[in-house]
Amino acid sequence: MSLQRLFVDVHTHIYLPRYAALLRSRTNAPRIFSRTGPSGATEDRLVILDNEPSDGRPVGPQYWDRDEKLKFMDRHGIDISFVSTANPWLDFLPFADAQTLASELNAELESYCSTSPPLASGSHSLKRLYGIGLLPLVPNAPTSELPAAVHALAKAHSHVRGVIIGTRGAGNGLDDPALEGLWAALAETGLVVFLHPHYGVDGSAWGPLDNGHVLPLALGFPFETTTAITRLILAGILDRHPRLRILLAHAGGVLPQLSSRLASCIVHDPRVASRLQHDARWYLDRLYFDAVAYGSAELSFVSGAAREGSRRMLFGTDHPFFPPLGAEEKWRSVVENLEAIEGVGAWRDEERDGVRGGNALRLFGLA
Fold it and tell me: Are residues 55 and 168 in the same domain?
């Protein structure tokens, strides 16, 4: 099989065993705990946020067992996965602990990937698994130490090709001037930044009716991502660091849909307009978007908003979250997102191949 025809998942998570053990040792969120289930068997439960129901959600081997990840990939025909630690990452730890754990987890992730099976097709020497690592980017982190962590990660782990980060930075957001050195280091090393939400938006926005996790996940996560990347744009970070490569989770939230409105607001605010070198819509072609959108209309819009269109989009599954509702079902995040790619009428076959895999291989330096 040609490299350009490989099927690649850029948005797939894991809690490495060391991280899962830490969550098991905790008594408050984030944590993993065991309880007796309705059938009388012991089951594990995961609580990520303080405002979640106290009984959490089911969690099991698919979150930390590499064989389970590979079985999922095999069942759905996925050739390569770029695996990242699922939120909440290290936000809940003091910097010294986060620094130690980030180093340990990155080494564990390198081993997880470097010892994974080789890709069977073709004569190339690719592995089935590659990693997106962690930085000790936590509230109150001494920001002067973060560039060294970036360079250490890039130098030590050849199978870790990026870093996953949340939106709070060292406590003041990702546009905090104190993080300038971090962005410079990420641009210099070429590590891909996977920007992923965690906190959503203020829960008071959802009203008194209990709608479960639907509003926080369907709307809160994309709004969080949209605000974070827009703040980066408005701060001029993409202008000052043109080699910086950022991949946005969940198809970039609503930034593509609101980019023209954003451009109009910027033009009418000279304080902001003077900071930027380009129209706000120009920056869409500086970003990458996973194709975790579940619909062809959404993918069509994101692709149409950026001049480079489909070349900026990459397939993802969000595994192991949102598992099948029935024992024999395939994962909807795979089936529906593949159907969405196939349903974009404006894309040629080679563009669909790019979204399904080729774009990811280029972005992460494997092509």
Answer: no
